[in-house]
Amino acid sequence: MNFLLVFLYSYIIGSIPFGFIAAKKKGIDIRKSGSGNIGATNIFRSVGKKEGLIVLILDMLKGVCAAFLTFTCMPQALFVSLISVVLGHDFSVFLRFKGGKGVATTYGVSLVAVPIAACIGLFLWIIIFLLFRFSSLSALISYAATSALVWVLYPSAVMINCAISFLCVLMIIKHLPNIKRLISKKEGRLQS
Q1: Which of 99, 127, 129, 143 could form a disulfide with 138 if both were Cys (CB 3.0 to 4.6 A apart)?
Q2: Beta pairing partners, 125
Q3: So where are the chain's domains?
Q4: What is the pLDDT at residue 35?
């Protein structure tokens, strides 16, 4: 029962569509603008830099809040919270089970569950982004590194590490169109 409760509240927290709300306040349906994604990158491109930064922070905080609440109250169910909050973001109940690609929320849960690996991953994201200006490439490489690092840095946290690996696979699946565009050299760079 505790695991179901954790799944439900984490999923609901993850489902809050901050990107959709931020764009709507500007009179934009973000699902019909740019890539159609509700995440920070599309908000940055389609709505504005300030809104993109706010959405990035709020989406990350969704992961932090859900994971921290679970870690504090029911640490044995933390792996459930990690997965369900990102599923909420990616498949929001408030947007007919559509959503974002989960990068910020995934890093949010990781900062709580595997902070050293997450910080290294975020640093790597920044470096790759500054070099190439591809948000998708930065996310994919940095989180693949994060998911590998957890097995080295936290070898006894098997369920958490499995959850992190699952989130990495989910991130890759959600980015398949971006991967195709990167290969065909059609992926758009994000300018500062």
Answers
A1: 129
A2: none
A3: 2-183
A4: 86
Could you give the CA distance from residue 152 to residue 156 in angstroms, rounded to a whole number?
9
pLDDT tens for residues 85-124? 999 999 999 999 999 999 999 999 999 999 999 999 999 9
> What does the pLDDT read at residue 192?
60
Question: How far, CA to CA in Å, does 123 sit from each of 1, 38, 64, 163, 174?
Answer: 38, 24, 18, 21, 22
Please tell me the total number of residues recorded for the chain in this structure. Answer: 192
Question: Angle at the Cα of 185 (from 179 to 190), degrees rounded to 5?
Answer: 80
The contacts of residue 81 (CB under 8 Å, 6+ apart) are 6, 7, 10, 66, 67, 69, 70, 71, 109
Q: How many alpha carbons lie under 13 Å from residue 76 in its C-beta half-sphere?
A: 5
Q: Judging by beta carbons within 10 Å of its beta carbon (0-12, 13-18, 19+), is residue 117 exposed, middle or buried?
A: buried
